[in-house]
Structure formats: structure tokens, C-alpha cells
Amino acid sequence: MSFRFKAIAAAALSLATLATSGLAQAADLPVKAAKKAADLPFFLVIDNRVTYSYIFNASQPGMWSLKPDGTVNSKTTKQVYSFTHFDLWGYGTNFFTISMFKSDHNDPAGPCTNAGVLITGAPATCAGATEIYGLFRSTFGWNEIFNTKAFTMGPLHNISFEVGMDANTENRYFGAAKRDVVAGLQFAFDLPYKGYINVAPLVYWEFYNHNSFSQCGLFGPGTAGVTCLQDGNTSYKPTWAVEINYYMDLGFLPQNMQYFSISGRAGWYGKKGTDTEPLPYSPANGVYNTAVELNSEPIRLTFDASKAVWGDKYSHFVDVWVAYRYWQNKFGLDHNAPSAACSATVGGVTRPSGACTESSLYSGITVKF
Fold it and tell me: Model pTM?
């Protein structure tokens, strides 16, 4: 019997007792109404933020130029403008972020035909490329769905269903774009000092990917379905993924220095076919297998500037942060494969260009509103 029905039954029994004892006048007695419990809001937490950040040493598959000494430069800076939304509701969480990445001249926007260096360089007159990238993740907690605490045990805080989607579009010469969905579970664990770590094993399916480097007619006639794709569109095979994110205040610091926190994330995405799926693996035709992708920001150090200046009431209204970013086999492209996206041919020698691996300092400022 639920608490509500027990309470109703107890009230009915109390009235019946008064009636059978001959206290008919009980109805005239003053009765203090029970105070109704406040309803919980549908959204327990809503957090919106805007961020400006700067990637000092980014890279982009297919984009590199020659330095005066004959070595390859595959790096570009990127300015990033982001909006992020997070909410906690009765049955889980929602996270959404959309970002605009603006590259420098070494990653040119398309079309860029000056001096015929579409792939091997970027003339100073070419504008840097722009990319729009969005990510969405939602969780549905088992404790909340089943109205239980059975999935809270020790450091385990909850188990959830997780679903999500990613999408991007780029104005580079390759006209790159992708759409993918994920689904699986999330295991949430508590860490000291108001911290947490979430581990999510997922199924990942990139059902749409466009890259014009695989399109018939761009670099020669080719044979559709053998050496090139008619429209440059690919649907990769579903694969596995593991996403991890964590956060923790540095609460062990002295009281007058408790303005710092650390956080991070990592995502591993399995092999999803060839780089121009459904074309079969064929080095002779420039088709290579994809590799396991690691997209990570293993550590971010955040300084709570607003708390330091205005006090606890304004904690995390303004954050200044610095991070290390590491992304290997970008978009699943094997950084060791002699493909056009990940290698450079200089003086008749083909070698990895570094364009498919990113290792960079990343810094920015975030404002809550």
C-alpha cells in the first residue's frame, strides 16, 4: 500500500472512531489543514553558458602546406564560439552544445583555387574554413524510472539509458559533413569533493558522411562503386563506442584557494568500415580501412573567477580554463595510412602528414547566463 493510500485510510479510520464514540460534534471542531508538500519543478537544474576558446595547434585531415625548408605544416589555429545547455529533470539529464570553429589560412575555406594549391597549401589570400558542430546527449536514470535506490551502491550513483546525436558541416573544399547517433548505457560514479565520473558504453552509427575527395570526377573520372563514390556520400557500419567524462573540485586546497576544479573527457569509437565505405579495402584505389578513433580532452583546469572576485553566491558564473586536447585518427581516418587525407607526398616520397592527429593546448573563458 502506498504512503498516500495509507494516509487516506488512517484519516478515514480516525473519522469513523469519532462517529462511533458518539462525538457527533467533532465536525464542528476546528481542524488544521495539512500543509501540502511542494511539488518538485520539472527541471531541477537549468544551466546555459557561452564560451570563447582558442585551439593553438589543431589539425584537419587533407590540409597541409610546405614550409620554406621543405617540411610539412599540417597545423592550424582555431577560434571556437560555443553555446552549451545542461539540465537535470525528473528522470535524467540533457546536454546540448553547438560550436563554430574558425580556422586560419592553413585550413582554407572552399572554394580556394589560388595557385592551384587546394590540397597541398593555403595561399595567404584564402580565408580560413568554418565548421559548425553540434552534440546532444540525454540520459534516463534507472533509479528514477523504476522509483528505487537499487542502482545506487557504494560509489555507483546511478545507471541510465543514454541516447544522443552528433552533426557537423564544414565549408572546406571537401565539403565535409556528418551525422551520427549513439545509444547505450551510462554508469555514473561519485568522486570526492562534489565530483563524478560517467562511463558510457554505446553503439555508434555514422549513417551519413560526405567528403568530396571520394566523389567521382573531382580528381579524375574514376569508376563509380570501385574507385569512387558517385555523390561522395558514405554510410558507415555501426560500431562500438565508449565515452567518459569527469569533474571534481580541488577541495583539498586551503580554503582561500578553493577556486579550482579539474574535468575531462575521452571518447573511443571503433572501426566503421573503409574510409569510403561501402567501397572495399583497396590501396591500389586509395581506399583504406578506418581505425579506432580517440577524441579526448584528458584534463582541463578551471579557475572560478567569479567566485574569487564576488564570493560563493556567484560560483562558476565566469570560468577561465586551460586544457590539453588530443585527437588521434580524426573522424576514424588512420593517421598511418598513405591516404590523401592523412599523408603528404613531397619529392616523390609519401609519408604521414600529421593532419589526422591533433595534440594541442586549448584555453578559453565561459560565462553563465
Answer: 0.85
